[in-house]
Design a protein that fits this description.
2,3-Dihydroxybiphenyl 1,2-Dioxygenase, domain 1, four-stranded mixed sheet, globular
Length: 138
């Protein structure tokens, strides 16, 4: 894919393939800052309405509520957090102990621990209530 910082919106849209993940956010900058500061993810094209986020070759998008104003999905999004109830986003290859140390303690849903399926993981809630789980192999 082209450089995420310079590609036009039209070329970016036409380039998308496979599975796409899009998170609706009340505050795109706050969500992008959380992902960058806590997990070390790369943030591109950050604006009040949009950002592209990368982790280990994977990409997902952040959109402000306003960009979905005419989309029927917005009517299903709860006004009060958490928005992401039931969804968990794993960030493989990120040390959960390091991420927890960077996170606001009030956002830690699950402290780091070794799991029987061979991962050490934790769960941290984003500003919009999405659950992100940094995980590394034991």
């Amino acid at each position: 894919m082209s450089d995420f910082d310079t590609i036009s919106a039209e070329d970016f849209g036409r380039s998308l393939r496979g599975l796409g993940v899009n998170l609706l956010c009340r505050d795109v900058a706050a969500m992008a800052g959380f992902l960058r500061d806590v997990f070390g993810l790369q943030v591109h094209r950050l604006s009040a309405d949009f950002a592209i986020v990368q982790h280990d070759g994977a990409m997902f998008q952040l959109h402000s509520d306003g960009t979905f104003g005419a989309h029927p999905l917005l009517g299903l999004v709860p006004e009060a957090a958490p928005r992401g109830g039931g969804a968990q986003f794993y960030l493989f290859g990120i040390d959960p102990d390091t991420a927890i140390a960077r996170a606001d303690p009030d956002t830690v849903l699950e402290a780091p621990r070794d799991k029987p399926h061979g991962l050490r993981e934790a769960t941290i809630l984003s500003p919009d209530g999405y659950a992100f789980s940094p995980a590394r192999a034991l």
